[in-house]
Structure formats: structure tokens, C-alpha cells
Amino acid sequence: MDSAISPGHVMAEDNIINRRGGESLYQSCANLKKRLAEVPGFEPHLAEMEALDKAQEVSDPVASVWGCLQNGYPLMSIFNATQPAEPLTLDESKVQEHRRPKAAAFKFLQACLQDLEFPQQECFLITDLYGESTTGFVKVIKMVNRVLDILEMQGQLYKPSNTNSGPVERERTKLTHREHILKEMLETERDYVHHLQNLQALKKELEETGALNGDSSHQIFLNLNNLLDFAQRFLIRMEQHNALPEESQNWGELFINYQEGFRQYEPFIANQLRCDAVCLREWDKIHAAPRSPDLQQMVGQLSTLNGFFVKPFQRLTKYPLMLQELKKQTDQPELSANIATAIDIIQLVLDRANSAIGKEHLVAAVLDLTTRVDDWKSLRVEAFGELLRFGTFTVLKGDTGKDTEREVRIVFNTFASKVSGHGESAANCPTTGVTTKDLFGPIFAISDNCACKKPGAQVIYPRSGDSLGSCLRDYIPGENQDRKALYPKKGQISRITVRSTAPTKVCWRT
User: Fold this and answer.
1) What integer pLDDT is reported at residue 22 of this predicted model?
2) pTM across the whole model
3) I need a labelling partner for 23 at 20 to 30 A (CA). Which of 131, 137, 284, 399 fits?
């Protein structure tokens, strides 16, 4: 996938990839909590919510509102505030106690569909409310807010009083450098989560329109749902932590507590190569599928879509920079040590992600090798083992460094192959990056831009006791367009033609 924007192209400021994120889930729940205080008849539920928060020492509006709505009955109270002809009730004598919350929530959903005529695709599912996915709960919040909007238009809500509006934050004319860092961290985190939500919306649309089947969608988006869920949960904790007094904040510890969740980044980042390939293959369908203007912008060009897929990697690289700046504003040794540990944790995730990307490149190299060899004879590529590295390296044959040649090495679990431009014995050729100790078994193949003295297929029969390396003295670099691969079988070396590509070094784990 093209990652670079075409020269001379200026991306519009209102482009979806440049757009700032809206309300976070934390902010949405905090605002919803205030709005619920304006709903007639909701007072008992508010009192119950506050008592439960105090007992559990919960200061998280997401957990507070989520737990309240899961009770089911508050949802019926919200709908009954619209003054329907038949208020919602639940005959508890016919429903077991542990089933009542879900039964009440189902009545709310049914009433919204039938009485308020909400489109089914805009309604949450029971699993969204009672599951553990923050993405599902976002649907719940949106639907409840929509009912409250109807109540507001009908004039059914209480007017908010000063006592219910919550504490007024003291305005500051100038933020400290530390506050600027935290402000940027939170705002950019909200933007990042918003970008992931856009990517998930695209995934849903492509699946619903049939533009992508299940396999293609998984190959492109992989663990996006899990990554978004973690990102939303981490943002909730960041905003909750930021609401604490400065002397109670420990940002390093926050990152340390979520170190396992950051592992969600590794497979998503490592999937970039496959994602690019599938997007390119399915681009015509992807480009034509979206129906909403925002999603159409996302697939306006390949580079724009790619910009969303690289957001997780970009975000991961930002954390150490911001934490380092935050560390400079901390004079307490314990807090500084925790931030240093947090930076190490993020760096470890980055290292693992880079390693995973490298492995994907190696897998692609194996696939490329299997397609370029016309006839593997009796060999099975799947039995070669794990590929360690590939590339073109310079081999120094003399102390002066003037006598050099290029080498491509293929090392398998069960045998080894060495590619050299000259006829040196493989055991005597020093290498860069891989030592001769990595080799074991017979020298098995030769593959580089080396050719026979005469063009065309040739068969060489090594003399008794000679190694393949000594036979290579009969080969010198040539101008043939085909690359040659030779392997021994039953005492002879036969020719395999490999389609020309850039010179590569291939090395399997020994």
C-alpha cells in the first residue's frame, strides 16, 4: 500500500484523517450522568448509583453509568419519561430475579423500535449492554442520549440547577508546562481513539455491503476490535487519572498497570504487509463500497486509508516522547522511576512489533522464493525451517578488502546452501552477519547473479571426494538474465532456473 501522499497533493484541513476527535467515552458518560439527573422519576436510580459508587469507591463515570443501565429498570424509567400511552412495566412474578434486568432492557429496546420508531441498525443489542466491549457500550450511550434528546424536544426534562451541574472548574489563565504535556497527551489520545473508531466503522460497512468477505476483512483489520477496546479503556483510565489532584497522580504506574494490554499493538502492526497486499487486491471493491461521506473520504485514495492503518504504530512511538517530557517535570524519584519503567515497557512493545514486522518480511521472502523456483525436485519448502534473514551482503576474500564478492546464503534446518559469485569453498568464505558455524550439512544450492561460462542448462558431475564448493570453481559471473540454482542429487548437480529478481540473501534457522 502506498504510504506516501502523491507529490503536490495538499490534504484538506477538514479531511477525516485530520479531524479532531469528538467526545471520549469518559466524557460522554460524565455528560450522560448529568443529563440523567434531569429525567423525571429517575431520582431513585441516581441515589442508588451514588450509593454504589461510594461503597465501591468508584470515581469512573463509565463504570458508574454502565452499572446503572445494566440494572435494566433505569432504562424503562427513561422511556416512561416520554409519557407513552402504555408505560413500561415488568411483571416480576413471571420473571426470575436474575433475568429481570435483561427483561427490562429488552422492553426498552422493543419500545424504542415500535413506539419511537428507531431504525434497528441504530439500536444496541443486549450483548452490547451486558458484554465487556466498550465499543458495544458506546452504542448504548448513543441510543440513551437519543431518547433524552426526544425528551428535551418535548420539554419533559427538568431544568438543570446549580447544585446538579457539578463542580465548576477553576479557570486558569496560563497552564504550567506539565499541564500542557498532559493536555496534549489526552487530546491526542482522544483523536487516536476516534481514528480507530472510524476504521472500525469502515470495517463494519465493508462487511455489511459485502465488499469484503470474512477472510479478507480479517486479513486487513485483524485484531482491530480488541485494539480499539483496549485503547478506549486506557483512555478512560487516563482521563480518570487526570481528574485526580496532581499530588495523587502517578502516570508511570498507570502505563505499568496496562503493560499487558499494549501487547494488542504487536499483531496489528505486524499485519501491515498482508494488510497492504489485500487492500491493493480488493481496492476496487473497497473504494466503491462506503455510503457515508466520511467513509468515502477514508477510501478516497490508497494513501489516506493507509494513514489510518499506521496510526497505532505512530501512537505507540509518541508515548515514550511524551513520558520523557513528563519525567523532566517530575522531581520525585519514585515517580521518575515509574515513568522510566513505563518508557521501557513501551519500547519493549515497539521492539516486539518491529521484530514481528521483520518476521512478516521473512515470510514474504519465503513465499517469493517458492514462486520463483520452477522445480524443487524432491525438496519440500515447508521442511526448511524458520527463515532468519535475507539480503545481499559483501564477502571479503582478502585482508586488504579489495577482493570482494556478493553472496546469498540459504541455511535450512536440514541442509545448507551457499550462493557465491566466485568459486571459493563455502567453508573458507567469511560472511557478514552469519558465520560459517551457522552452516551444517552439505552445501546444497547456488543462487545469485552467477552463470555458466556458456549460456543454457548444464549438468556437472563432481569427482569422487570433491565438495560442491570445489565444483563452483567452474562457475564465473556471467551476463545471463536467469539466475542459477544448483543442487546435488544422487551424486550429480542439476540446474534449476530461478526468475530474476533483486539479489537476496536467505537464511533459515539452524
Assistant:
1) 74
2) 0.72
3) 131
